[in-house]
Design brief:
It contains six helices and 27 strands. The radius of gyration is 25 Å and the shape is elongated. The strands form four sheets. Strands 14-11-12-13-26-25-24-18-22 form a nine-stranded antiparallel sheet. α3 crosses α4.
Length: 373
């Protein structure tokens, strides 16, 4: 195999594909990038068995071939080189790849690519096309709310719910929940599947710079995302997602409207003085005033702030975990928000008070914490 490529262009693709690499692999072959050259098309693959990603790059090809090269070594070597053309040449007799640059020559061992995992063949596939920007937004708005509990794997990913009316994306860890819905995009078939966190994290960072559309192919066991020169395939999380609609309270007569940035800043300041185990902040609402309080009795720390707001409903006190509350407020973009509540022991719902894009709908739910009397 022999080809010439821009070091910067190759590094960019390796960094995208490298997002799937693990530090401790069970199979040594997974510590490598698979390089495959056909004519002027160089494809680069990486896999952790659960997810496989493949990127294609235009190069000046000389001899076709395949080689699995050490991923970290290749990444670090290219990062240390300034932008310039580099030549890759494999030597089958010594099983080495030689990289030639303006500065000198570098040699690394490669292995045969026969054992490298290929993109899985998918049968009974449905396909939905989504603008890249909308998918990136859906992942950004939901992924932070997914759980980390190994005992509840279904809650560690994002639930994709496609229908002929809308596309819905949901994440929850049982303490907080986010539902992001688009009614301006529909799917041909009704489908539900749970995407794991890792491939979504790769998509989140990659889709930000893509202006194109993403094709999602999915069946019972796998989903494949195709956009520009990249194909990402992932095994789905097996299991039934909890009935999230059942936990969203329908009657919430107590509604607080407040400026998001002021509320967020105040909650962050007050939370510094909260108990380090519960992270509890207390909201006390009456008329046009919101009081935000926190106390750590063990260390005699406390904080108390007042904010002006628009509150409709009965006077009320409710406690929330400050980390969940600030995470949600950070992930909303509207200038003002509504916090809708029914009782101190029922979930609070956070909604943007300002108009969103046409067809866009977002709901965030945060469970309360028991108030210390």
């Amino acid at each position: 195999m022999k080809f010439i490529v821009s070091s910067g262009a190759l590094l960019k693709q390796l960094q995208i594909v490298g997002g799937v690499l693990n530090n401790n692999n069970t199979l040594p072959i997974l510590d490598n990038f698979l390089l495959q050259l056909e004519g002027s098309q160089l494809s680069i693959s990486a896999s952790d068995l659960e997810s496989t990603i493949k990127s294609t790059l235009e190069v000046q090809g000389d001899e076709d071939g395949v080689a699995a090269v050490p991923a970290r070594l290749l990444l670090d070597g290219l990062k240390a080189l300034p932008e310039q053309p580099v030549t890759f040449t494999t030597d089958e007799s010594s099983m080495t790849v030689e990289i030639s640059s303006d500065y000198g020559r570098y040699s690394l061992a490669f292995v045969e690519g026969d054992e490298f995992p290929q993109l899985p063949e998918m049968e009974d596939v449905s396909t939905t096309t989504i603008p890249a920007e909308i998918l990136a937004t859906a992942i950004n708005k939901t992924l932070f709310a997914a759980g980390n509990d190994d005992l509840r794997p279904v809650m560690s990913g994002v639930f994709f719910q496609f229908s002929s009316e809308s596309l819905t994306f949901v994440a929850t860890d049982a303490h907080k929940l986010v539902r992001y819905r688009r009614t301006d995009i529909q799917a041909d078939h009704t489908a539900e599947f749970i995407m794991p966190r890792k491939p979504l994290t790769i998509l989140k960072s990659t889709l930000a710079s893509i202006g194109d559309e993403v094709k999602i192919h999915y069946n019972e066991t796998n989903a494949r995302f195709e956009f520009e020169n990249i194909v990402l395939s992932s095994r789905l999380i097996d299991g039934k997602y909890p009935n999230y609609e059942a936990v969203i309270p329908k009657e919430n007569p107590n509604v607080l409207e407040i400026e998001r940035s002021k509320f967020l800043s105040s909650a962050k300041r007050v939370a510094i003085f909260s108990n380090k185990t519960t992270h509890q902040v207390r909201l006390k609402m009456a008329g046009s005033e919101l009081q935000i309080m926190a106390e750590d009795v063990d260390f005699s720390n406390k904080a108390h702030e007042r904010l002006s707001c628009n509150y409709q409903g009965e006077d009320m006190e409710i406690g929330f975990n400050s980390r969940f509350l600030t995470e949600m407020l950070t992930n909303l973009e509207s200038d003002n928000i509504h916090l809708e509540m029914s009782a101190p022991n029922r979930a609070g719902i956070i909604l943007p008070a300002d108009a969103l894009e046409d067809g866009e709908n977002i709901l965030m739910l945060v469970m309360p914490v028991m108030l210390n009397s």
